[in-house]
Input
Amino acid sequence: MHDAPTHAVESSPGTAADGKEPLAAGLKQRHLTMLGLGGVIGAGLFVGSGAGIAVAGPGIVLSYLIAGALAMLVMRMLGEMSAAMPASGAFSVHAERALGRWAGFSVGWLYWFLLVVVLAVEATGAAQIANGWVPAVPQWGWVLIFMIVFTVANLASVKNFGEFEFWFATLKVTAIVLFLALSLLAVFGVLPDTEPVGLANLTGHGGFLPHGWSGVVSGVLAVVFAFGGLEVVTIAAAESDDPARAVGRAVRSAVWRILFFYVGSMLVIVTLLPWSSMQPGKSPYVAVLDSIGVPGAGQIMNIVVFVALLSALNANLYGSSRMVFSLAERGEAPRALLKVSGGSARSGEAGSGGGVPRRAVLASVAFGFVSVLLNLEWPDSVFLYMLNAVGAVLLFVWGLIAVSQLRLRPRIAREAPEKLTLRMWGFPYLTWAALVAMGAVLILMLTDDTARPQLLWSAGATALVLLVAGARALRERRGRR
Output
């Protein structure tokens, strides 16, 4: 396998010869800030959190604190590297620089596969909601409409992607803030027909930890993957006017607020309602809004979840296209994907103005559409295997981010300390702590009957990609001889 490059601060793999990205710098700071805030506020929070509450009770607050702290540490590491070396391939580029081409190839393709498979879940979920509103249009018809709309938006201009995500994220953040405000008023008995609830629901029904610490641990397994999606902000930062400054500000503003949104939401939910009344698959947000007398609570949350799914679909299409484009730049994907709307990345025609990697967008949406068809036709067989194959990939990606940061931080500090504008807290101790925590989650998945198939299938997919990376490296080494 290839050795890692010896210098950390020269032009990064995945950038043009002059050190600039060949893609258009069409994203503004407000786009990145809202992308960072809204990137992880999705159906996993609004609906999936019910499963976490069911297994952990009020202890779900601790589960979210633990999972959120891990996500914050990973984002801080990623922010540090991306501020020092911004590139459209983000952590794939960092892994290549830190560990060698095999690492960049592996993490890049695994993340691309994760995005295009999850894209199918989001498109299908949004289509189911839309079909409920307008039954005359079949579910597959809604899927087709969504895929066409977001493909056109991503082909036209990166600014279109930024605007879509800005308004999607604004709606989601506004919904969370209003929910927290209404819930707090209900907790203190300020709303009409409400009385202060006190701590009865936190201490009753089996206590704060009705299932003990094992319930908290099970809650972590149920919620940790809901934090996936923050990584896209570091990919998008490469298409802003000042990538280093933009990614630093976006990461700083996102991590604390997201933890506040998640933990704050869970705290008011389990304070207002008995945890035992929660049902997996049913939104605890709807239950709370119903309990405080908000008319049409279910339909309101349907709209919010619908927007969240479309937002994630848009972000995943964007992230997957940029990742495969970055892989092509480094010779790890077909060179034909390097064509951008303003010229060719290979020839440098795009220049600093750049354009949109249209072939990369089309390649990603094509595979994504195949995933959607598999989900619609064989949700319990073929697509289920694909979904299991990416179930734990996020943790593998996070692990490589941490290892890359351990390798690159000393190199950057030695050769260009001025580039460390955003530093990882408590380096290297907190980085090692994050790695240990990820290892613990993987071990817990192995011992959990529900999570074990996802871990084994994901391990198999990872092993296959690593095998391909090793075979390519061996072939190139023989070629040089």
